UniProtKB/TrEMBL annotation:
Its main location: cytoplasm. The gene is lysS. It holds the Pfam family Anticodon_2. The lineage of its organism: Archaea, Methanobacteriati, Methanobacteriota, Methanomada group, Methanobacteria. It comes from Methanobrevibacter smithii (strain ATCC 35061 / DSM 861 / OCM 144 / PS). Its EC number is 6.1.1.6. This is Lysine--tRNA ligase. Belongs to the class-I aminoacyl-tRNA synthetase family.
Length: 527
């Protein structure tokens, strides 16, 4: 069984080239999220696999920071609309914390690359134009404008104007790049007019302009000798950017287009991610609620063109259950549902793993910690005891005591608790949250049947030791059935007396997580 990343790497390894360059690119139009950064994660994984196959591979990330601002990104103020049409590279930082707009949105993204084990060489479109890297390609495009127009017109309903040029100068009057129209050139001098009414000339060597996108994309494939590039499905549409740029690359720049890896968009709670509407979730936000490997797992557990919807809310607990299971199967801590599933789990985790060969991390079940933390607070030793009492430790840890955890395991334990705390504070629905009412018995009404049930449960827990939540759960149901009391009513009584509310975590596990004497007294409605 091979993962799709491995299949791509093996296909590339058969090609006659001394070095593979896997390119990725992102428009710096606002916060970089898990949707538009897929290029980077996929490119890094392919490069890693190529190197494992003994091939030389370089992964680059090109910031499209010379493109025009088309929409004001969230959470910038509306008055930023005065910069619409201007290159990102010329727009000031919105908060004054960075040198410019680009750095403001790049910095958080680049700052977490090490955490995800991503090795990329950062390239800037703005710097490439300013340093003259594109100059020869601009000249070649201008000299071959007639053929480029023919290529474009094959895929257009309306043909381009006779005087159209594949280049957009930055207007020296209004500073915009998407409102200019280049109509003539003489050597390196471009003549243009702008919607603002200005007409002027510019020298391509100034860097104050850029090739139109599909020509620019083809040019940079040749510039960097790109052999593979992941990109969003919009570019992969029939007659879209990849198709057009591939022809331009071959016919105009004499370079075969790279191996394409298109991917489907990631939606957020069913909505398309949008920087302008504030609908996005960044790699940095992910690290606040989950380990880096879990994002890799999310991206690589299915094929790239399969639709993905992410939610950091309640369904995130289901996702973390899956990730925890896959990780434990990989480390042989748990059995897989089947042999086939086991092979699949291990292969996906192998791709998602950041440090190959790293030992089993200490990551107790995420969902269980949601409850354990709300009982014990940030007391790792107390949480560990709750985990142990509820059989939540896997075979490598179940016979250990808290003092047996090494420095790395303690750090991993704290990181997981911190992730849970951030999830509770930021995304958890109200019904998940609770607080044990330790100081006094909540004044909530109970029926006689509920009071009787609590008394019998108190007697049972006082007289018998329960080492498994399942055993206590079964015993509770025996009492309920004996009384003819509906389980919902019995559990509500427990939550009312301990939490001061009608709902809470799974009752048996919850009770075993609390101090036994406290539970017995509270079930008897004693102080």
């Amino acid at each position: 069984m091979k993962h799709w990343i491995e299949n791509i790497a093996e296909e590339l390894s058969k090609r006659d080239t001394d070095k593979h360059v896997i390119a990725s690119g992102t428009s710096i139009s606002g916060s970089i999220h898990i949707g538009n950064s897929c290029d980077v994660f996929i490119a890094n994984a392919i490069g890693k696999k190529l190197r494992e196959l003994g091939k030389e591979a370089q992964t680059i990330w090109i910031a499209d920071d010379h493109d025009p601002l088309r929409k004001v990104p969230y959470p910038l103020p509306e008055n930023y609309d005065k910069y619409l049409g201007m290159p990102y590279s010329t727009i000031p930082c919105p908060d004054g914390c960075c040198d410019n707009f680009v750095e403001h949105f790049e910095k958080p993204f680049l700052g977490v690359m090490d955490a995800y084990g991503i090795e990329i060489e950062h390239k800037s479109g703005f710097e490439m134009y300013k340093s003259g890297v594109y100059n020869d390609y601009i000249r070649t495009a201008l000299e071959n404008v007639d053929r480029i127009k023919e290529i474009f017109n094959q895929y257009r309903r309306e043909p381009l104007a006779d005087d159209w040029l594949p280049y957009n100068p930055i207007c020296e009057e209004c500073g915009r790049v998407n409102t200019t129209y280049a109509y003539d050139f003489d050597g390196d001098i471009i003549k243009y007019r702008c919607d603002c009414g200005h007409e002027g000339e510019m020298n391509i060597k100034s860097g104050n302009g850029k090739l139109t996108w599909r020509v620019e994309w083809a040019a940079r494939w040749k510039i960097f000798n790109v052999t593979c590039e992941p990109f969003g499905k919009d570019h992969a549409a029939s007659g879209g950017s990849y198709d057009v740029s591939s022809i331009i690359s071959k016919e105009i720049f004499d370079y075969e287009a790279p191996y394409p890896v298109p991917y489907e968009w990631i939606t957020l709670d069913g909505e398309a991610m949008s920087k302008s509407h504030g609908v996005f979730f960044s790699p940095e936000q992910w690290l606040a609620i989950g380990p880096a490997e879990s994002l890799n797992y999310y991206l690589f557990r299915s094929k790239p063109m399969k639709a993905k919807d992410f939610s950091p809310k309640m369904s995130f607990l289901d996702f973390m259950d899956q990730f925890d299971k896959v990780e434990k199967v990989f480390y042989n801590e748990e059995e897989a549902p089947s042999e086939k599933e086991g092979k699949k789990f291990k292969k996906i985790y192998e791709i998602a793993q950041i440090n190959e060969g790293s030992p089993l991390p200490f990551r107790p079940p995420y969902r269980f910690l949601v409850n354990a933390y709300q009982i014990a607070g940030n007391n790792l030793e107390k949480i560990f005891t709750i985990l142990k009492n509820n059989s939540q430790l896997t075979k490598s840890f179940k016979n250990k005591e808290f003092c047996d955890l090494n420095e790395t395991e303690l750090k991993q334990f704290q990181e997981r608790v911190d992730n849970v705390v951030n999830w509770l504070d930021t995304y958890a629905p109200k019904f998940v949250k609770f607080q044990v009412q330790e100081k006094s018995v909540p004044k909530l009404p109970l029926t006689d049947e509920q009071t009787e049930f609590l008394g019998k449960l108190a007697d049972l827990m006082e007289s018998k030791e329960f080492n498994k939540a399942e055993d206590l759960h079964d015993a509770m149901y025996e009492i309920l059935e004996g009384q003819g009391l509906k389980p919902q009513k019995g559990f509500q009584a427990i939550y009312k007396m301990i939490l001061g509310q009608k709902q809470g975590p799974r009752a048996a596990s919850f009770l075993l997580s609390l101090d036994k004497d406290f539970v017995v007294k509270r079930l008897r409605q004693e102080a």
